Amino acid sequence: MSLSKCYTSAPETTNTARLARLILGPCTDVLRDILKTEVLPSDLSRKVKEFTDKLPRGQRNPLNKTQSEIIFPKATNQYSGDYSDLDISLLYLVLRNISKIAPHSKGWGEIPNPGDRSVAANIERIRLIRNKYYGHSADLSLSESEFRQEWRNIRDIVVELERHLGATTVYQDAVNKIKSCSMDPEQEKKYIDLLGDIRELHITVDDLPKTTKRTIQKHYEAMDHLFVKTRAFDRAKELLDNNGYVVIKGNPETGKTTIAKMLIKELMDE
To answer: Where do the domains of the chain lie?
Structure first.
């Protein structure tokens, strides 16, 4: 296989691939095991339905279309998997909303206090690490010092979550192995691509601090009287409503940012 220049192996690209393996491997798998201790796979669909049925009128369902189809498959409307098809985004949403795990001291959706080593705080840290590296291009370089810091953070998280699960050390052993295992250029490309393919987990407006929400609201109110809806805006809103997310592409200065901002305002108004 011929690799493009951006996949030329170097210590920095190897570090990026290792980080992707940590996120996609031990971090995701330990969350799956945490969820299994909270909710049996056979009960997942029922519990998620109970949660969504109780949402206040007008509050948006946190699950997007793709996530809903995983939990409520069209053929049976009953989840029958073993959580191996749930990624970090969906695992986080389920653990946050239908498990009995108490929120960390700052609350779900917030950056945990450094000294808070609770289960919820470590779940939150995995979400934050995943989002930090989401969507980077394949030529992302991670220095040795940056990788060592993230590796230590991830190892601490996995050790503490695994301690919550019991005496096993399967995932922390995997974290240790990934730090120094062999990585050829094709492996690097595979894991970097997989990391880039993960959809970012969005925090809803309701999760934001009140002062932040007020600041955002004032900003959009000031823009509102200047904005004229176009066909592009209407199409973007239609895709967002149907799929739970939308990618806006176009040439520079064609209004991508303005459309995105006004879509956010529409969601806030709803």
So the answer is: 5-197, 208-269
